[in-house]
Amino acid sequence: MQKAILIVLLLGFSLSVQSQKFSKETIDSITTIVKDFEAEMKKLSAPSHIKIMAVGDIMMGTNFPNKSYLPKKGKDPFDDVNSILKQADLLFGNLEGTLTDEGENAKRCSDPSKCYSFRSPEFFGEYLEDSGFDVMSIANNHIGDFGAIGIKNTAKTLKKHNIAYAGIFAQKSTIFEKNGITYGFCAFAPNKDCVKIHNLNNAKKIVKELKEKVDIIIVSFHGGAEGADHTHVPRKTERFYGEDRGNVYLFAHTMIDAGADIILGHGPHVSRAFEIYNNKFIAYSLGNFCTYSRFNLTGIKGYAPIAEIEVDQKGNFIKGKLHSAKQIDEIYPFMDTKKNALKEIKKLTKEDFPESKIVFEKNGSFRQQKEN
């Protein structure tokens, strides 16, 4: 009722303004009032709690080095997990590779069969849109697999399917709106074609610029050492095969201190711990999620967690739920009745971040235990 009255009053006020002459200063003042009113109306119409879901690496199949690495027709990649994904108000994933019908392999490989370059056909973008992906990171070590044309076509394909993206030099950040909430998103990685995870001052600048324009800021990073021996967050710079993979603990905390609300990590190809820092949620690695054929999915590398995070309009963590999915080589993700991803992340969270006091329930729900 109050909203309707305000709208009627504003309309009447606007008609009155149109029938009279005012100074530029007065008109500017009226314009500001109208904009503030519109912002308040947007907040009133937006949900008080927002359910954000996030998954890790996605590479739905590649036609390089040949088409044998593409799945057989007839099954969409997310068919067996869509019942969960479609519950999200906002859905995030890391696109581990390119979506391009053009481009030559940019890596030097004497044996193409041992060259891990990922070129998914552009029509695969339909699968992402159909499952409800709203925003994706393209900051990782595979976005440049097929050179500049591969990067350009990946961006074009995501845009065609109404999926926001960031993490490359041409798109360091992005702003988009959904259900009355304005989101800012940026993504970082240690790799040559990406906005660098190592440059904290630049990353802080990007986040602070977004903070002035949006309601909730989501930051994604591709970082940390890879594999089953690197499930823990060491709170120091990680190196892997001689490459500086970043200090993901310092990065995540620095981004939140700069104004970020949600931090979503990937890159190690295994799950890592969750943390709540200053009422903001951090996932240090969401592992593999939908990675077909060219990935090692044995043991814990086959766990495919779906993180559900509920936040308020200011991005503060309220509660969450971890849905456990699983992958097997050349089989797309499916729900895991044994809840292995939940067991793994629960254990790692307790060991790596006991100060966060995150309590997990058997059904995957989790919350932060508050001090009395």
List keywords for this structure.
8 helices, six-stranded mixed sheet, single chain, globular, 27% helix, alpha/beta, ten-stranded mixed sheet
Provide structural commentary.
The structure is a single chain. The chain is α/β, with parallel strands linked by helices. 27% of the residues lie in helices and 28% in strands. The protein is built from 8 helices and 20 strands. Strands 1, 2, 5, 6, 15, 16, 17, 18, 19 and 20 form a 10-stranded mixed beta sheet that branches. A 6-stranded mixed beta sheet has the order 7-8-9-12-14-13. Strand 7 (173-178) and strand 8 form a beta hairpin. The two termini are 39 Å apart. The model is unreliable at 4-9 (pLDDT under 50).
- Percent of residues in helices comes to 25-40%
Radius of gyration: 22 Å
What's the shape? globular
Oligomer: single chain
Summarize the biggest pleated sheet. Answer: 10 strands, mixed
Question: Which spans have pLDDT < 50 for at least 5 consecutive residues?
Answer: 4-9
Which SSEs are present, and which pair or pack?
Layout: H1 2-18, H2 24-45, E1 49-59, H3 82-85, E2 90-95, E3 98-99, E4 119-120, H4 125-131, E5 135-137, H5 147-160, E6 164-166, E7 173-178, E8 181-188, H6 200-211, E9 216-222, E10 239-240, E11 243-244, H7 248-258, E12 262-266, E13 274-277, E14 280-283, E15 288-291, E16 303-312, E17 317-328, E18 331-335, H8 340-352, E19 358-360, E20 365-368
Parallel strand pairs: 1-2, 1-15, 2-5, 3-4, 5-6, 8-9, 9-12, 12-14
Antiparallel strand pairs: 1-16, 7-8, 10-11, 13-14, 16-17, 17-18, 17-20, 19-20
Helix pairs in contact: 6-7
